[in-house]
Amino acid sequence: MTNNQPLSLFVSSKMQELADERRAVRAALVKYRMYGWLWENDAGARPEPIGSTYLNEVDACDIYLGLFWLGYGPYTIEEFDHARKLQKPCLLYEKHVNLEQRSPELAAFLDRIQRVDNPEGLTVYRFENPEQLAAQVQSDVTRLLTTRFRESRQQSSSHLWNVPYRRNPLFTGRDDILNQLHNKLAATKTAAITQPEAISGLGGIGKTQIAIEYAYRYQSEYPIVLWIRSDTRDTLITDFINIADLLQLPERNEQDQQTTVIAVKRWLSNHAGWLLIMDNADDLDLANNFMPIASKANGHILLTTRAHATGRIANSFQIEKMVLEEGSLFLLKRAGVLAADILLDQATEIDRIKAETIVVELDGLPLALDQAGAYIEETASGLSDYLELYRIQRFALLNERGSLAYDHPESVATTFSLAFQKVQETSQSAAELLRLCAFLHPDVIPEEIFTDYKPNLDPTLQPIVTDQLELNAAIKSLLKFSLIRRNPDTKTLTIHRLVQAVLKDKMDKCMQHQWAERTVRSVSRSFPFADPETWQACQRLLPHAYLCVELIKQWSTIRAP
User: Fold this and answer.
1) What is the separation, in whole angstroms, between the first and last Cα of the chain?
2) Which of 50, 187, 320, 548 is most buried, taking the most CB atoms under 10 A from its CB?
3) Calpha distance 192→175 (Å, rounded)
4) Contact of 263 with 149, CB cutoff 8 Å
């Protein structure tokens, strides 16, 4: 066996009795990139005796596979003993039909196998038809791939792979987070307890794309890469059933779906070398119920989630928006201005400046940059045209997803609107707090803006300004979808500019005026009288005071208290 050759199996059986079964086994090996050696197809004209040919093939094979029914061939015992002597993994299968016709010699042989002193590398299984045999061979071979051949063999691609997305040729940057993820997961090989890693962040920040890139970039390290949609219980169950079918587990066709889920979890717990990606696992409690109980270094679990707090379920990697250079390069490639393999310094200065301006407008959100690039490409418009149109028709363009968005079909506006809707369903106070944040400066929003201002607020905000527990509960609801960030040291919040934009654009003029007025009043009441003792507090509120001046200009009916 070499790293460049497919794994080979020597299939031993009587040709007359089990021809259909041998063909079923060979067909089952195709997707594993393995080769099953069969005498009737592969022997050819050889100068050496048949017996020597068989033994030479046993020498060369990686796995010995024996099929038995009513009897065995003239060289079976010699082949099997030779494989055991060479410490080859031996997979043995007996057709459990018409046992009364089984020869005494075969019965004695199988009895001897059951009594071996060292059963390591030896599997004996009973089957009734070719389909059942093929499924079990797949399961046994997968076990060997993830155990015995794990360290000695690195395939050029995964043996089992169900990632539903192609690799993104325009994937840009994120090398630091990918390296950190890889190092963290690799470290679990020596850890006493393995723990999932979670890619966390705002919707549209690029979590799924990072997971896809991780799967492709490190696929040679995982014989098995499995992808599970974790949005809901239904999608989880559906994908677990699909995996059971991929693994050819006996429980894959069970009427009780939970039985199939348990079988997959058990298989993962008992095998090593796999990568399990659970995408859109926003409900971490739900996702946790489907995770295998992983013993030491069994496999790696990677989650994508909007949840800020992952607790003891997973280690969290918070994903930030793209920096200016990274975002500019991605936009230029996505818009077709630069080829996929071109670096940013090869772009013209004019294109770089225009791209940087759009990145700033879109606050570095990868989904928004992808939408912008798709629009420019599909309409054959330019960077300047898009920027000009965006400043006039912002909400319409944030709703414009593009026609080829398979991995994330929802637009920026839809993504944020759906998240906001879920917040509103669970906490009206959190929804109102977010609306107030939408009219403040997006960076470093002091929490005293909410706690210092009590009169004339919307009734739903009254509890959070009078009770720290209520404020914390509202912030917790927003952090669940990463709609805000909180800095406990500075007691400030941060909100993405496009979250603000979508929230405001969804309001009618009357509601916008109402919240603009509430914002001005809250900042005004929190702003202290200027003197040396309060200057630090003034500085914290100064960006919001400047913004309130603009709101007063925009809404001439607003009067500061």
Assistant:
1) 82
2) 548
3) 28
4) no
User: 3-state SS string over 149-174?
Assistant: CCCCCCCCCCCEECCCCCCCCCCCCC
pLDDT at 527: 79
**Separation between Cα atoms, residue 114 and residue 457, nearest integer Å:** 79
- Other Cβ atoms closer than 10 A to 144: 18
Euclidean distance between CA atoms 285 and 307, whole angstroms: 11
In the 8-state DSSP scheme, what is residue 84?
H
The whole-angstrom separation of Cα 368 and Cα 205 is 9
For 59, the token pair is: 């020498």
Q: What is the pLDDT of residue 124?
A: 79
Cβ contact 448:525 at 8 Å: no
Q: How many CA atoms lie within 13 A of 471 on its CB side?
A: 17
Domains of the chain, first to last:
7-145 (3.40.50.450), 160-318 (3.40.50.300), 324-398 (no CATH), 412-554 (1.10.10)
Q: What is the DSSP letter of 307?
A: -
**C-alpha dihedral (423, 428, 433, 435), degrees to nearest 10:** 70
* CA–CA distances in Å: residue 505 to residues 137, 303, 408: 58, 32, 22
- The Cα 35–Cα 27 span in angstroms is 10
pLDDT for the residue numbered 153: 45
Q: CA nearest 273: which of 163, 185, 192, 210?
A: 185
Q: Phi and psi for 531 in degrees, rounded to 5?
A: -155, 165
Task: Yes or no: say if 364 and 322 are a contact pair by the CB < 8 Å rule.
Answer: yes
From the number of C-beta atoms within 10 Å of its C-beta (0-12, 13-18, 19+), residue 491 rates as: middle
Only one residue has tokens 């199996």, namely: 9
CA distances (Å), 522 to each of 340, 461, 480, 519, in order? 48, 12, 25, 5
CB contact at 8 A, 18 and 72: no
Rounded CA gap, 51 and 105, in Å? 20
What local confidence, expressed as pLDDT, does residue 193 receive?
Answer: 56
Instruction: Give the closest residue to 402 by CA, choosing from 333, 351, 334, 339.
Output: 334
Tell which residue, 227, 235, 182, has the closest CA to residue 208. Answer: 227
SS3 content of the chain, % helix, strand, coil (to 5): 55, 10, 35
Handedness of CA 59, 61, 62, 64 (dihedral sign): negative
The model's pTM: 0.69
The answer to whether 243 and 226 have CB atoms below 8 angstroms apart is yes
Residue 79 is predicted with a pLDDT of 85
Which parts of the chain sit beneath pLDDT 70?
1-8, 14-16, 29-53, 115-121, 146-159, 188-193, 294-297, 403-407, 452-465, 529-532, 557-561
CB 145 within 8 A of CB 223: yes
